[in-house]
Write a structure and sequence with these properties.
Elements lengths: L1 E5 L2 E8 L4 E7 L3 E2 L2 E3 L5 E7 L2 E5 L2 E5 L4 E4 L5 E5 L4 E7 L7 E4 L12
Length: 115
């Protein structure tokens, strides 16, 4: 299993093949990922531990263990661990680099290019 360190925690790549990807993600309390969308990627997120705030379809959604949501291409979203550390599972189509960042607290927007 490959661990990828992120400014908000880490993700572990459990499976990556030509049909799907499975990741386990850990987000530290008080952190959040980019406001983003995907051009092709479809992802389903399920909470394993903790609580996650999900900005999705223009509103905030509070997610607890075993809550799940599927995010389709073009749908803007952002996850945030407000009340404590959070662990969640992401199952998606295999396009790992399909991320268009609109906002990012960690300086990962490229000038003149959103990725």
């Amino acid at each position: 299993m490959r661990r990828i360190i992120k400014p908000w925690g880490y993700e572990e790549l459990v499976e990556h093949n030509d049909r799907y990807v499975v990741k386990r993600l850990f987000m530290k309390k008080g952190h959040r990922c980019s406001l983003q969308y995907h051009r092709k990627k479809i992802e389903t997120v399920m909470i394993l531990k903790g609580k996650l705030e999900l900005f999705y379809r223009g509103r905030m959604r509070h997610m607890r263990p075993f809550d799940a949501v599927t995010i389709r291409p073009g749908e803007k979203h952002r996850m945030e661990a407000l009340n404590g550390d959070c662990m969640y599972l992401e199952c998606s189509t295999p396009e790992l680099d399909d991320v268009v960042r609109l906002e990012d607290l960690y300086g990962r927007l490229q000038k003149g290019k959103r990725r």
